[in-house]
Amino acid sequence: PGLLAARLEGTAAEPAYVSGEYEAALAGSRRAMAVCRENAEATGAVRNQYVVGISLVNLGRVAEGERELQCAIDAARSLGMPRVVGTSLEGIAKSRSIAGDISGARAFVTEALALYDHIGAAPVATATALSAEIEFLAGNCERAVELATTSLAMTWLASRPFHLAMRHADLTAYLIACD
Q1: CB-CB contact of 63 with 41 (8 Å)
Q2: 158 near 126, Cβ under 8 Å?
């Protein structure tokens, strides 16, 4: 029962994160991660560690979040979980961009994109959107608009309505700011 409850709590933490409820996502993922570790459920622990890390980054606790994300990368690599490696690399790219380290952010998102290309994974649209955000922060408006347009098209083709709304908002913001 404890492991099932942890899986449910970890599953509930993901939509909390996506909807911007970072404290709830952090708390739920931490509890789920602890139970998964107690029960030797390594893959569940790693997935929850990613949510812990990215939630911390979005709460402004960048250094702490990066440590969690790096641990998630190391564990996911050893467990053969390349998608978790990729999303965790994106998380570190986001944290580097928040910290103002544009070259570091670019390096991590480029690594994530190369990994996705290698495994044929679908998260390319989100990584491309993150690349647009990084270029925007670097002052490269035209490149940000180009990447945001590409990400929007990828998201449209993947039929992901929630993400589609986010991509439209991103592109609109860049177009307004770059005008």
Answers
A1: no
A2: no
